[in-house]
Amino acid sequence: MTTIKDIAKAAGVSPASVSRVINNGPKVGQKTRDKIKQIMDELGYYPNTNAQAISAKKNISIGVVLADLISPLSAEMAQGIEKVATEKDIQIFFNSGAFDKTSELKAIETLLEHRYQAMVIHSKALDEKTLINFANKNPGLVLINRYIKEIEDRCVWLDDKLGGTLMADYIMDEGHENIAIIDAEGVINNSALRCEGIKHAIAKRNTDRTINLIEVFANASYKGGEIAVQNLLAMGQKFTAVLTYNDDMAIGVISMLKAHGYRVPEDISVIGFGNFILAKCITPKLTTINNPIEEMAIKATELALALSQQSKFETQPTYRYVPELIVRKSVKQLIS
Amino acid sequence: MTTIKDIAKAAGVSPASVSRVINNGPKVGQKTRDKIKQIMDELGYYPNTNAQAISAKKNISIGVVLADLISPLSAEMAQGIEKVATEKDIQIFFNSGAFDKTSELKAIETLLEHRYQAMVIHSKALDEKTLINFANKNPGLVLINRYIKEIEDRCVWLDDKLGGTLMADYIMDEGHENIAIIDAEGVINNSALRCEGIKHAIAKRNTDRTINLIEVFANASYKGGEIAVQNLLAMGQKFTAVLTYNDDMAIGVISMLKAHGYRVPEDISVIGFGNFILAKCITPKLTTINNPIEEMAIKATELALALSQQSKFETQPTYRYVPELIVRKSVKQLIS
DNA sequence: TTGAAAGCGCTACCAT
DNA sequence: ATGGTAGCGCTTTCAA
Q: How far is Cα of residue A2 from the mean position of the Cα atoms in its chain?
């Protein structure tokens, strides 16, 4: 590999001058600069980022840990992060934590080992204590899609509880009394909070009406939705509406309901969560909850960048985002 | 940040010994080893990967450039790559090239600057010359989803032309004579090859029947499919079948056809490409071409890793994969 | 088994 | 405007 010394030798200058050219620094004559540039070109030279990082004691790229690389949620997050990075001409290091504790931990450690100053973490498996610990040691670390009280000023999160409430209130408004909810297994935070929101909303109404609730758990995917619905059906309990953890599951649910001869929404209504692009291209178009995750990702990235540079960012106590009900065609009104 | 020296001092040993412990090397007494480990723990020490990389003159992680981070294709690729990496306990650096030439170039350069030895590149925008140049300078660089003759032993690719042929043959077998194809704009390779395959298959049959072909271009997304179909309809030419560049587009096409009052497949048939998970959860279930991209990604990763270590891998002249027709419900038979 | 010290490629300070 | 050079954190001989 070509090094700065090779360039210096070939150009008949000192490494210092080459370094100045690399960094577009001042104090180099135009002629020298041109010559050096030309030689770098000829020799196909790329500065060694690793050396730059240890020498300058910083790594201006941004490190990201996503829970996975396949869900629409991750895709939208990645897009938001990229937007900011591209705009500021900063490189991103994506790492994924495959939903389990060990690999999430490893993914974060890798970021630390690379000495990223700015980090955006989407952790679905690690416990609060671990995350608080990491956050306290790394000022540029920001959590996305998760709220932890002790470090709330470093959290960019969705009010999942409110999301659950929106789902429950709407489905009850439409007259449903027998409701199934499909939660995500292995997801530490969001699922439980939404469920809490749902139950809370139901409890509030139970004064005038009796609402029956069935709860099952499944993998947060299309496949998981299919399986969950089979289980629900096998249980033999009546339900007229299904609330799912995300749109992927909802699509699986609808598909499997159809396969069993049920019509959606005539026989059974479905509400998803996320408002991903697929939501409106299936039949029936999915009623769901909008999750402004790209917006959140943008904010998280800007925050991480700002904190890592100790710049005076308009810091807020915390960064809460609000879910929103999107009414389409997958819910039937039961009362007139 | 804690360094190796801090640990050495705290443990009352030399940095050399600490280094040995970090790398699980031999030549350290058990007692010393334990002591050092304990102190590393206490001080929350993580070795600086950048320093390791310049000192050891290697970077054993694998660098990846994906064309984007949002398409199902990329998601499946990422999964394949991750499988290999996880298995071998190697870290991955994902970078994305947002479909345009400049940022793809930049993404690759970033990988070079980090001195990754193993690289998997999915380039959709860069020209062959540039890629050949990179490949020749970097023995561990492998191209995925693209075939370039000059460096075919470093290419893991799908036979797109055959894919096109499969689509065309099937749709003609079903009796269609007025066919629209929606190509992807801005994609250098695959789209043109598939189209070639389609035209080739049609030419072969034109001896006994006349086939009409309309061709339009659009963005390779759900949205692009919607727009393309509107354009097709506006052109006023008759067509009974639409062949799309990918499943996302096909879903957009179906959705928009329905919006215009056409039934699929009764009025118009649709064939997608990719066989992504969504393909079978829409109505009607999508007839499409299977693209074994995850398998390809696994192969590409193994190849890159092997080449970067100059290990004796069972190298092949080239790595060609074969697309396959998946018949579902989105095509109507026009002859009895 | 342990330590001293010479690099790795680069930056930044101090001279010139 | 330029060059010399001391580090940055780590690995790896070579000696002890």
A: 39
Provide the 8-state DSSP code for A318: -
Distance A120 CA to D5 C1' (A): 38
**Whether B258 contacts chain A with CB within 8 A:** yes
Residues 197-236 on B with a CB inside 8 Å of A are 222
**Is B48 (CB) below 7 Å from strand D?**
yes
User: In this structure, is the CB of residue B261 within 7 Å of any atom belonging to strand C?
Assistant: no
Q: What is the pLDDT of residue A336?
A: 56
A57 touches strand D (CB under 7 A): yes
Under 8 Å between Cβ of B113 and A61: no
Residues A258, A261, A266, A271, Cα dihedral to 10°: -30
**Distance CA A229 to C1' D14 in A:** 69
Q: What is the mean pLDDT of chain A?
A: 93
Q: What average pLDDT does range A88-116 have in this prediction?
A: 89
State the DSSP string of A38-75: HHHHHTT----HHHHHHHHT---SEEEEES-SSSHHHH
Q: Is the minimum distance from the CB of A1 to strand C below 7 Å?
A: yes
User: Which two tokens mark A327?
Assistant: 């009414």
Q: Which residues contact A225 (CB under 8 A, 6 or more apart)?
A: A182, A218, A244, A248, A249, A250, A251, A252, A253, A255, A256
Contacts of A147 (CB under 8 A, 6+ apart): A155, A157, A189, A318, A320
Global pTM reads: 0.91
Q: Where are the domains of chain A?
A: 4-42, 54-158+294-321, 160-291
Closest Cβ–Cβ partner in B94, B110, B115 for A50: B115
pLDDT band at B312 (very low <50, low <70, confident <90, very high): low
Is B54-158+294-321's fold the same as B160-291's? Answer: yes
- How many angstroms away from the CA of A7 is the closest CA of chain B? 16
Nearest chain B residue to A250 by CA distance is: B281
CB B242 within 8 A of CB B271: yes
- Does 3.90.550.10 match the CATH number of domain B160-291? no
Of A145, A175, A158, A161, nearest to A269 by C-alpha is A175
For B50, which of A76, A94, A115 is closest by C-beta distance? A115
Q: Read off φ and ψ for residue A329, nearest 5 degrees.
A: -125, 10
CB B131 within 8 A of CB B148: yes
Whole-number CA gyration radius for chain A? 25
B53 touches chain A (CB under 8 A): yes
What phi and psi, each to the nearest 5 degrees, are found at residue B54? Answer: -75, -30
Contact residues on chain A for B75, CB-CB shorter than 8 A:
69-70, 75
CATH classification number, B54-158+294-321, choose in 3.40.50.2300, 3.20.20.480, 1.20.1250.20, 3.40.50.1100: 3.40.50.2300
Indicate the angle between helix axes A293-308 and A72-88, nearest 10 degrees: 40
Spatial contact of B114 and A49, defined as CB atoms under 8 Å apart = yes
How far, rounded to the nearest angstrom, does the alpha carbon of residue B151 sit from its chain's CA centroid?
18
| Mutation site, A74, A277, A301, interface B, largest B CB count within 10 A | A277
Cβ proximity of A122 and A65 under 8 Å: yes
Residue with tokens 């300058």: A56
Mean local confidence (pLDDT), B144-164: 97
Q: Tally Cβ neighbours within 10 Å of residue B174.
A: 19
Asked if residue A270 has pLDDT above 60, the reply is yes
